[in-house]
Amino acid sequence: MADYASEKYKSDLELVRKIGKAADSVSMARFLSQDLVIETKPDSTPVTDADKATEKCIREILEAERPEDGILGEEFGADISGKKRYWVIDPIDGTKSFLRGLPVWSTLIALIEVTTVAGEEKHEVVVGFVSSPALARTWFATKGGGAYTTFDSDTNPNKGTPRKISVSKVNEIKNAHLGYSDFVGFGDHFAGFQSLFNEAWRTRAVGDFWSHMLVAEGVMDVAIEPSLALWDMAPLDVIVREAGGTYTDLKGVPGPFGNSGVTTNSVLKDEVIKRLNG
Questions:
Q1: Are residues 126 and 113 in contact, defined by beta-carbon separation less than 8 angstroms?
Q2: pLDDT (tens digit, 9 = 90+) per residue, 14-41?
């Protein structure tokens, strides 16, 4: 693992990959189940017994292995006040896909460090991990350590071996591959998004985590989602950055702490943000 992480975060990456395997066992045991229990949360989004069981699994390991760290999870809230490090968990990103049997869902885990700069707290994602067991894929990165992916299919001769990834060098929208989820939630940014959509070489509604990971791999060049929470974005941020790309909100503010996510290959970032706010 030393070759795939910066020295400072090597043990954190080893831990998060261990957690990922445990979480995959829980989530995959419920995927395509006929007796999946589905509820509706107060924000009208669905949650399944698999979401809750997967987050409990992750929390139990973190509480045992990193008792001093805080935890912020989608299903069971946050205990991060005063913490210098905290973990952000989305047990199943893409619950709607999960409950309908579509394999485009993942477990997202990130480590955030808190520092004080000029009297202000700065929160930075330093470790990111994405596991999509139904696709047999993982992606991960540590600050200063690069970004990697694995393809765990039995048909892959390099099964489980991390491969370093990097963003594309496409420099014009007309040649760009654009990823998104749907057309909902753009508000005043929709006209700008539509101009990108109409001009791009190719567009695909891949959705959720995957379009951003495809940007990190250089398969797509831009991915845009207008309405997200921190747990939807935190690990994606550091993975895309370590692959050479950018992660901002719709207004161009760096990081996953806004309410939206725009990933680019860096070359296209200024034009994309300009269009979205034009």
A1: yes
A2: 999 999 999 999 999 989 887 778 777 7
